[in-house]
Amino acid sequence: MTDVSSSSSSSKVKTLRGFKALELDTRLLGMIGAFLVICIAFNVLTDGRFLTPRNIFNLTIQTVSVAIMATGMVFVIVTRHIDLAVGALLATCSAFMAMLQVRYLPDMFGLGLGHPLTPWITIAAGIAVGTAIGAFQGWLVGYLTIPAFIVTLGGLLVWRNVAWYQTSGQTIGPLDPTFMKFGGINGTLGATWSWIFGGLAVLWVVWLLWSARRAKLSHGFPVKPVWAEITMGGIMAAGILGFIATLNAYDIPKGRLRRVFAARGEDLPDGFSAAYGLPISVLLLIAVAVAMTLIATRTRLGRYIFATGGNPDAAELSGINTRLLTVKVFALMGALCAISAVVASARLTNHSNDIGTLDELRVIAAAVIGGTALSGGIGTIYGAILGALIMQSLQSGMAMVGVDAPLQNIVVGTVLVAAVLIDTIYRKRTGGK
Amino acid sequence: MTTQPQHAGTTPLVEMRDICISFGGVHAVDHVSIDVMPGEVVGLLGHNGAGKSTLIKILSGAYRADSGEILVEGQPVQINSPRDARRYNIETIYQTLALADNLDAASNLFLGRELTNWLGFVDDDAMEAETRKIMARLNPNFKKIKEPVSALSGGQRQSVAIARAVYFNAKILIMDEPTAALGVHETQMVAELIQELKKQGLGIILISHDTREMLALCDRVSVMKNGQLVATERVEDVTEDDILSMIIMGKKPEKAA
């Protein structure tokens, strides 16, 4: 967007001036703006119940499952494919993991209920299954050249019912206690560790900004003025610490604490209170987001994904194996479905037959609202996560206001179409980017 | 221009012998042989659909020949993919430019051969620096290093494509209508670049419809019609009319000289 052409041919490092110096991503700003408008509007409509620590906590843990899958959907859509089977694949992985930890491991392998290895074997096996199914679908798309729409439409039916078949339609639970810590409310860091995490995250952001600046300077590229770097770093640090403070402000209810103490054979001391803090599921989402952003922007795989989306022929002629790339992209999507399955089933504390129903639409909508272009080649990981957050805020906000269920879905559908329209107009105005 | 490559004694940089390929019964390339010496520009002429692009796509690894042989510096080689072609320092600039529109110039230049740091991550800054260096040499007016190439003009896009070939030390450069989308000034720039690369000893295969341009740039021209090679002639032995009659009628000119 900003013109960084250095007319003095890099003999002197040129700096940018004014507001432009911040080099802000206007699309990101727009989405954050839309998100804030939604939050404030619902907060007014619910007499301040929307922006409470408790609701923000709930909102984040409700978003995690869809957001994790949306990051993978970005890659799928960027390579000009689609995956309609993510919700069904989530169900298959969830059913498999539920059966594994509740039935197979205790019955066949003799690991007792609550064995310390159970959750880890379960998660590893679940991710392996998700990856394998994803890779298989990718192989059908890439090597047998069946359109992804068809492969995953078939997959939607197949995997949904493989899940059903595995469990005979029963609800499987209760799940392993350690496994359930990935669900949200059952596994949080507590106030102290949340602050430690927040502090580390701030240090990391500062280090990132500093090392990016140093790398630019070492090549003699133009850099932002120091005040702009400090402003950006300050905004990000405030955002991180504000988020941690909000989650730490949500105290565990007294009744629940009393049960925890009772389980240890103690009484709840007077005036004792503890905060939930950062949920482990959100930590997982952050890890996935960082990893996927690294893949997208800093690895050859990511570069090839975007190149293939921009011009498949050019990618092929540049020596990129686009077929294998398709397999990798779908395999990654499958792995993320399995991780989402861990979060989703852990949040419900059991596997139910309808888990992940319609998730494919939520995931695709999140990616698209987040600026992923269905024509391929364009999309960001942070955009998809913000998209998931916007969708979830709309949904739960309307539920809190008391909007009728049919109207809720009508609004969400309209917002999806409107978001893509705005994005299309924005791209035309800015000459496509 | 004065030192003409001698056929006797030196090995061709690349030689395609008796190449055939057919698509669904149509002989797109039918027993065609061409060769290129170091420091030589060979022009490939013919109507649309004469098989020129198909022939060079076999050399660049996009297609596999049904039969025939490819020799690089006298050694028979197998070229089954664009990656193979690149390994033999065969670089191609395609008619359609083969750039990913959504990526910037540096990413396109290094596509498939990214520079990485010690962690194996793509080193964008290093690639940008290299791109700035080579662009300063090829097209000093080129400033839009960080913008997606969709925002560039035809000439600027062409310089990215050429930079890619030059940067990776091509020995054999295939140019499929490199000036088709360009203005007068940019066409002149490409012509100068071809002379420059020729001096460095590259072998260049040039495809164009512009007969006059071909006579100016090439040392030899090969004319194809309906998938077959009509003839290969030294440019000083033929006139523009001779070439046109070869293209249109598929006949060799009467040898006068």
From TrEMBL, chain A:
It is a multi-pass membrane protein. Keywords: Cell inner membrane, Cell membrane, Membrane, Sugar transport, Transmembrane, Transmembrane helix, Transport. The chain crosses the membrane at residues 28-45, 57-78, 84-105, 117-136, 142-159, 189-210, 230-250, 271-296, 329-349, 361-385, 405-426. It comes from the Bacteria. The keyword Cell membrane applies. Coiled coil: none annotated. GO terms for molecular function: transmembrane transporter activity. It is found in: Cell membrane. GO terms for cellular component: plasma membrane. CDD domains: TM_PBP1_transp_AraH_like. InterPro entries: ABC_transp_permease. Part of the binding-protein-dependent transport system for D-xylose. Probably responsible for the translocation of the substrate across the membrane. PANTHER family: ABC TRANSPORTER PERMEASE PROTEIN YPHD-RELATED-RELATED, XYLOSE TRANSPORT SYSTEM PERMEASE PROTEIN XYLH. This is Xylose transport system permease protein XylH.
Automatic annotation (TrEMBL), chain B:
SMART domains: AAA. Transmembrane segments: none annotated. It holds the Pfam family ABC_tran. Its main location: membrane. GO terms for molecular function: ATP binding; ATP hydrolysis activity. It is a peripheral membrane protein. It is found in: Cell membrane. InterPro entries: AAA+_ATPase, ABC_carbohydrate_import_ATPase, ABC_transporter-like_ATP-bd, P-loop_NTPase. Residues 14-251 form the ABC transporter domain. Keywords: ATP-binding, Cell membrane, Membrane, Nucleotide-binding, Repeat, Sugar transport, Translocase, Transport. GO terms for cellular component: plasma membrane. This is Sugar ABC transporter ATP-binding protein. It comes from Sulfitobacter sabulilitoris.
